[in-house]
């Protein structure tokens, strides 16, 4: 049952004309279109409804990896930072060195607090020398950034713009984009962006996405035209097998991609996630959390994220609670944060935090589930296409 259905007392998969409990939960500009195209379940992310059910999630996965899907991800709210000191301010938020970030380029960044832990892991887009977007995971970075700005002494303006992204993902996405925008769009490089128009609708297009497949994000800049944009993309995609869909838990776990609030939160630091490459402590830039991260780096960590293969009957869906991980000799050593059955790999796969002395490849563990405990083994992650050749368009 979806979160919204459960709270409203509706049976699983039920759609009514009003999903809301009040205006505090927003509907995206694509909400009505997704219902027309078969969305039957929603959950809440960044204070907005996101479609989570277009039927069989395994079929959604095959649609993604064989053809293409269009996903409403307007819940990826944007924080716009502009002004004369915008570049200096954005650098203050993240341990990743942004000194070479060009206009028109995107980067995956971490936002850390004073303890060196994650507040968010957004994609950063640089639209101009003095204008940036943070495309967010599920936490209130707008409030954080506005708070940091108060005593920063920097001349910046921080607000949430009228921007609502869609994700067009899958191996046919490049052909669909060419049908929409012309063949020049094929030259758009991985993690770069362009400002364009489609039938007079203003958009920003980036070669990014949350699928580990070839894909694009299309950022609508006029919410009144959400329905028109959705329908235009679906119409162009029909000859290529485009289907409406939702972000695939199967594919993102295969790709080792984080889901904030599940695989990381404000208690987790980058070193525990193996994201050392995004923490640049020896450069000249300063940022919030630098001193804490220096200490963590020097002291080491007690737990790390690993991949697990679970020896059990195929899971019927993602885990909805954190499962305890124990050593084979007993004693808790960690927890599973995300688990799913991969029909492509024909395995149950999971992301988990375990103590560092139980994190070696091949380590045998046990996972405690409501259905009973099962054996598990620490394996390489990502579980599929570790070099992200598909997302980069290398094959």
Are there runs of 5+ residues with pLDDT below 50, and where? Answer: 1-17
Broad shape = globular
Give the strand order, joined by hyphens, for the main sheet: 12-13-14-11-3-15
Rg on CA atoms, Å? 21 Å
Taken together, the total number of domains comes to 3
Major sheet summary line: 6 strands, mixed
Approximately how much beta-strand content do the residues carry?
25-35%
> What share of residues is helical?
10-25%
CATH topology of the largest domain: Gyrase A, domain 2
Total number of β-strand segments?
A: 21
CATH superfamily of the largest domain: Probable tRNA modification gtpase trme, domain 1
CA-to-CA gap between the ends?
37 Å
Overall pLDDT, averaged?
94
Helical stretch tally: 10
Structural class: alpha+beta
Tell me the name of the CATH class of the largest domain.
Answer: Alpha Beta
The name of the CATH architecture of the largest domain is 2-Layer Sandwich
Account of the 3D structure:
Residues 1-17 have low confidence and may be disordered. The chain is 21% helix and 29% strand. The chain is of the alpha+beta class. α6 (173-181) packs across α7. A hairpin with a 4-residue loop joins β18 (332-342) and β19. The chain folds into 3 domains: 3-76 and 162-253, 2-Layer Sandwich (Gyrase A, domain 2), CATH 3.30.1360; 78-159, Aminomethyltransferase beta-barrel domains (Alpha-Beta Plaits), CATH 3.30.70; 257-379, Probable tRNA modification gtpase trme, domain 1 (Gyrase A, domain 2), CATH 3.30.1360.120. The protein has helices at 3-8, 31-36, 57-66, 86-93, 141-150, 173-181, 226-237, 249-254, 290-299, 389-392; strands spanning 41-45, 48-53, 68-72, 78-82, 106-108, 111-112, 118-120, 123-128, 131-135, 157-159, 164-169, 193-198, 201-206, 215-220, 242-245, 303-310, 323-327, 332-342, 347-355, 364-368, 374-379.
